[in-house]
Predict the structure.
Amino acid sequence: MTTMRPPTDPAELHRLMSLMTGDEKHSAAATSTLDVLQVLYDRVLQVDPEHPDDPVRDRFLLSKGHGPMAFYAVLAAHGFLDESELATWAQPGSRLGLHPDRVLVPGVEIGSGSLGHGLPLAVGTALGLRIRGLTTPRVFVLVGDAELDEGSNHEAIAYAGRSGMANLTAVVVDNASATHRGELAELFLTEGWRAITVDGRDHDVLETALTAAHDDRPLAVVAVVESKG
Amino acid sequence: MTMTTRIAAPTMREAFLRAAADAIDADDRTALVLADISAGADPVPDLAARHPDRVVNVGIREQLMLGVAGGLALTGLRPVVHSYAPFLVERPYEQLKLDLGHQGVGAVLVSIGASYDQPGIGRTHEAPEDVAVIDTLPGWTVHVPGHPEEADRLVRESIDADGLVYVRLSDETNAEPHHGEGLQTIRRGSPDDVVVAVGPTLDRVLAASRFRDATVLYTSTVRPFDAAGLRRVVGEVPTVTMVEPYLEGTSARVLAEALSDRPHRAVMIGHPREESHRYGDHELRL
């Protein structure tokens, strides 16, 4: 496995996304996550499409399963999916649903869609890797700012912050879609996490934040993008 | 003079915790996930001291308890998850559905409290619906032990196996354990009058005058239901009475499927479907 990959051409990702057509009400969710996903897969994650179940791979959990076109496009760009399959998106019999399904799609770590499940699952995954003595793999989970309204996330944030989970990073893609909005970084900081707020469209800044030192704590990266509107 | 020390028989809860501790000592793929309940009960504190990583107490956070179990299972571990039935099955129902079943991973869920084990504390801690709730989800094995020795065996077997297992423990027990597989014939009687006693209801069924002439079957495993075993026992036009220590009618579906090839009369006995505001009185009426 290596992170030394040629950077994905943004135009290529948009071309891949354009192959997935149809009635998609979560297109804003897809475009909001695109840059974070690109940086993760281009520069950060240690994953290998030839060995998607490698025990020592990094885990990326897309908790915000809405609008997975960006995720599928990045997986295709990195060899987890054949480009030709993208056109089957959301069609009867396709592996590529409106929400990603780990049982069907290689490289997808969790089936998601219902909000508030990915972060607790990520906490369990981080614990499990530690229990198994796997110190190399890191766990990244992507949540949306509105998703943080779900109470299950608060259970996970409070527990993880007090459990020394230095192998866990939560990426909050903030497109200002939460109905009752709080201070996102503060939510994590007060529970013992390290938290960084960055421009969610600046790839270099994102890479720096996603690979920042954890200081024996879980890390939250709040990636701010344009408002959903 | 001879001195004897009387060692109290363990409860199902004690039998479970010992079995789980043995499994965690013996197998580094086993982990116990708690939400405070039983965290201070023997032998959990000593177990946690020996295996601090694999005894995970998330505090009173039941959604997280199931999410953590799902994550542990995704890394190849065998989580054993435990709490009172309403906090293990009802409150985190979506986590059972999505964090375990939908992810395609297994776990062993072990509840205490049963339907009305502590009737004094009321509706909030009672879950006579638990098996019916689990039964809405595919792929679950459901054990309802009727004796602490059965609980010990079923917990150990469940941890050793794969898949999704719910073990419903109770303070109610029969006098003796019955360790056979599937439906066991406890008393032979009329093949046209057959009673299926589930878990801790057996001794009361055997004592009930209304079932004096009936064939009495027993099972501690209700899902999957031993339909073939029932068909081997019953007559051509049987009356089958199912006595379950939880919500009445919970197994009506599987009973109807089992006997779909013959006319039959089904009688379902269990706790009534009610919004209870009663404290201290929930005797199962036979």
Q: What stands out?
A: Chain A is about 35% helix and 15% strand. The CA atoms of residues 154 and 201 of chain A lie 26 Å apart. Chain A touches chain B through 30 residues (CB under 8 Å).
